[in-house]
Specification:
Blueprint (H helix, E strand, L loop, with lengths): L10 E3 L10 E6 L9 H16 L4 E6 L4 H13 L2 E7 L9 H8 L3 E5 L1 H6 L1 H9 L5 E3 L6 H13 L7 E6 L3 H12 L6 E6 L4 H10 L22 H14 L8 H14 L7 E6 L9 H7 L2
Parallel strand pairs: 2-9, 3-4, 3-6, 4-5, 7-8, 7-9
Antiparallel strand pairs: 1-2
């Protein structure tokens, strides 16, 4: 057992020609919070874990796809902090060929419950009630760690900053992280920072709706055009960039989230949309499991 979070993530300046030769780019290293678990998934769990503790719950129950960083984060947090964990898995058979996200979740002691896609999509409350009805020990965490608690944990990132950046840029999928960052900027009175969430899948209108609904007087622009075909899709160009950046800095980035966000940053610097006199903060959200894919292997050994 241990405390939460494991470490306070540092901010450091990163010099990489593969990104930009002229710009001052700082990295908030939330990837260092944990070697495997995504930094933002830890952040989104923090307030849920506090709530579970204060209600004397001992069992965390959640929902995820078979390649879910959130599922792995809950499994790991349970092992670290002494909770039992269970996860409903969408549309997946569990067997000896199950992928390594599921393997790691099981190593951390998580109980996996495979359910079909329709039940998963439409009947989450029902699933929870039928499996855990009389179990007062259970605390339910929404898919992806979203919602108010998830945002509050992310907002803390801004309180940890020692300077006010002109831009903060990061990978965005459900816009929970982006919402939390806007909330944090607002709380801390960072009026001159523009948030640049980079869309890594094609759900622009959903993300915009979520961000606009916050009704915060805080500048943001959802960056699109760097989806590379959609969620977890890649291109040889993206893979080459990722490999170059990693070899230049020693900082691991993945093709699903942070690789796309950094590629977007490189393009915005190149085009002059972000001028070189601006201070840029890249939020490294972690997500290392996405790096260990067959596509990456194919690229490295071609
Ligand atoms: C889940 C995840 C994101 C996206 O976060 P949202 O809050 O869903 O927008 C970004 N980066 C990594 C590494 C993730 O695991």
């Amino acid at each position: 057992m241990s405390t939460f979070p494991l470490i306070n993530a540092v901010t450091e300046q990163v010099f990489a020609n593969s990104l930009s030769k002229e710009h001052s780019i700082f990295f908030k290293r939330d990837d260092l919070i944990h070697s495997i678990v995504s930094g933002n998934k830890w952040r989104k769990l923090e307030h849920h874990i506090e709530a579970a503790k204060s209600q004397n719950k001992t069992h965390l129950v959640t929902f995820g796809g078979a390649f879910s960083n959130h599922m792995v984060a809950v499994a790991c947090a349970g092992a670290v902090l002494g909770f039992k964990t269970s996860c409903f898995i969408r549309g997946e058979e569990l067997n000896r060929n199950s992928n390594f996200y599921l393997q790691i979740a099981v190593l951390y002691g998580m109980h996996l419950i495979p359910v079909d896609r329709i039940d998963y999509r439409e009947k989450k409350d029902y699933l929870f009630r039928t499996h855990f009805e009389n179990n007062a020990d259970c605390y339910c965490i929404p898919e992806g760690g979203g919602g108010e608690f998830g945002m509050l944990g992310v907002a803390d990132i801004i309180s940890e900053l020692t300077f006010e950046p002109d831009y903060i840029i990061h990978a965005s999928a459900t816009a929970t992280t982006a919402s939390g960052l806007l909330l944090g900027l607002n709380k801390n009175g960072f009026k001159n920072t523009t948030l640049l969430p980079v869309n890594v899948l094609k759900n622009e209108s959903e993300q915009l709706e979520k961000l606009n609904n916050l009704r915060l007087n805080q500048a943001f622009k959802l960056i699109t055009g760097f989806e590379f075909g959609g969620y977890a899709k890649t291109s040889p160009e993206l893979m080459v960039f990722i490999q170059k950046f990693i070899s230049e800095t020693g900082i691991l980035i993945d093709p699903v989230y942070t690789g796309k966000a950094l590629y977007a940053l490189k393009s915005l610097c190149e085009s002059g949309e972000i001028s070189s006199d601006k201070k840029v903060l890249f939020l490294h959200t972690g997500g290392m499991l996405g790096l260990f894919s067959e596509k990456m292997m194919a690229r490295l050994f071609e």
